[in-house]
From TrEMBL:
This protein's record includes keyword Hydrolase: yes
SUPFAM superfamilies linked: Composite domain of metallo-dependent hydrolases (SSF51338), Metallo-dependent hydrolases (SSF51556)
Protein name according to UniProt: 5'-deoxyadenosine deaminase
Entry annotated with the keyword Hydrolase: yes
Listed Pfam families: Amidohydro_1 (PF01979)
Top-level division of the source organism's lineage: Bacteria
Source organism per UniProt: candidate division TA06 bacterium
GO molecular function, one term: hydrolase activity, acting on carbon-nitrogen (but not peptide) bonds
Domain Amidohydrolase-related: 52-405
Keywords: Hydrolase
């Protein structure tokens, strides 16, 4: 299938000046980007005059399993949020409720211009979330939650967890043209024994599977990690042999100076979730300092019950604002934030050769934004400021993943939105209030 996007303002990456032009997609690949492409044979022409074509947004830390718990765990800090609400809720999931939760989250993500996610599921039934991702077309790296301590109902023994991981890896990794990838996902240091972490490292080494976890999100959590292990959270992961370019860690707020060096020297990727960090009162990650050190940083919304959206525009804007308060207005500009939400995400997922920028030969993962009354841009100099500080999900007009138009003129095409809402409401009734 050939799709021609005509007359857009094209942002290929943050290094290239935006320009008026066309993009030709051939199946899943960007075949041409030129000022004017005239091709006699296309299956679809999108007239994007007045619109902006950008690399699809990448969110490197979300929890589709938690979408259905949105607005049900309020005004508490991380450990209470987990122990009083999220872990008991997750333990009540069935395959059906997990599938409905994932579909609700994916619909929101696609409608707000996110083309790729890294997702952390729950302990059981993760096959249902893979199925939702497969059906709805979003690009995803994801895995079942690994935890063998910290909650009697949700935690499982190591043999069960690793067998489930191997089954899911063999069934789903690199499926559907490489769109879906399996990732090992230990919840965090407090829910995994040392023995489990060592099994995870072993499986990561054998199959070359990345590891996605949380680290140093909350000061109390970080103190308990120190009490239990004798180390800071990142130091502990280094001692376990987990720190390398395949490690992706959400938050990284409460680190000592040595731990920043560990992140840098081992190429560990930081997944920054500013809204969740503020909503749980966790703290502010030192993102500009990390970037200065050369640590790769990307963005994510985290779970809907600690956000309460999966909207990349919220994350981009807040990522900028909180650093301006902390370090001054020049601390991180809009272009840099745009890079974190696109190329930074691609690097975190080890996919910088495939996604994150618009280039000939890369995957056709493209978001098209239509400025409106609250977000006009007048020239190329203001375009990044408009996207980060003025635009929102109502500007998202097309979302294209792997050459498939999943949101078409603002309408979700890869699933029926009314049935997603209806089934999510029914599934929500399954959960007993805590
Ligand atoms: Zn999280």
């Amino acid at each position: 299938m050939k799709i021609l996007i005509k007359n857009a303002t094209v942002i290929k990456d943050v290094k290239t000046a935006p320009f008026k032009g066309d993009i030709l997609i051939n199946n899943d690949i960007i075949e041409q980007i030129e000022e004017n492409i005239s091709t006699p044979e296309t299956d679809r022409i999108i007239d994007a005059a007045g619109m902006i074509a950008i690399p699809g947004f990448i969110q490197t830390h979300v929890h589709l399993a938690q979408t259905i718990f949105r607005n049900m765990a309020e005004d508490v800090s991380l450990l209470d949020w987990l122990n009083r609400y999220i872990l008991p809720f997750e333990s009540q999931h069935t395959a059906k409720t997990l599938y409905d939760s994932a579909r609700l989250g994916i619909a929101e993500l696609l409608l707000s211009g996110t083309t790729t996610i890294q997702d952390m599921e729950t302990v059981l039934h993760t096959d249902a979330s893979f199925k939702a991702v497969y059906e709805m077309g979003i690009r995803a790296s994801m895995g079942n939650m690994l935890m063998d301590t910290g909650n009697d109902i949700l935690a499982k023994n190591i043999d069960f967890l690793m067998a489930e991981s191997e089954t899911l890896y063999k069934k789903w990794n690199d499926t559907d043209n490489g769109r879906i990838k399996y990732v090992l996902t230990p919840r965090f240091a407090l829910s995994c024994t040392k023995e489990l972490f060592l099994e995870i490292r072993k499986m990561s080494d054998i199959y070359d599977i990345p590891v996605h976890s949380h680290a140093a999100e909350n000061i109390e959590e970080t103190k308990i990690v120190k009490q239990q292990t004798g180390y800071g959270n990142i130091e502990y992961f280094e001692k376990l042999g987990l720190c390398n370019e395949k490690l992706r860690l959400a938050h990284c707020i409460w680190l000592n100076d040595y731990e920043y060096d560990i992140l840098k020297s081992n190429g560990v990727n930081v997944l920054h979730c500013p809204t969740a960090n503020f909503k749980l009162g966790s703290g502010t990650a030192k993102i500009p300092e990390m970037l200065t050190k050369g640590i790769n940083v990307s963005l994510g919304a985290d779970g809907p019950p600690c956000n309460n959206n999966l909207n990349i525009f919220n994350e981009m804007k807040l990522a900028g604002l909180i650093q301006k308060v902390r370090l001054g207005p020049e601390s991180m500009n809009a272009k840099e934030i745009f890079r974190l939400a696109t190329a930074g995400g691609a690097k975190a997922l080890g996919m910088e050769k495939e996604i994150g920028t618009l280039e000939i030969g890369k995957k056709a993962d493209i978001t098209i934004l239509k400025p409106n009354v609250h977000s006009l841009f007048y020239d190329e100099n203001s375009i990044f400021n408009s996207i980060i500080y003025s635009m929102n999900r109502d500007n998202v007009t097309y979302t294209i993943v792997d050459g498939n138009i999943l949101v078409d003129n603002g309408i979700l095409r890869s699933a029926d939105i009314q049935s997603i809402i209806r089934e999510a409401e029914l599934s929500h009734n399954h959960f007993n209030p805590i």
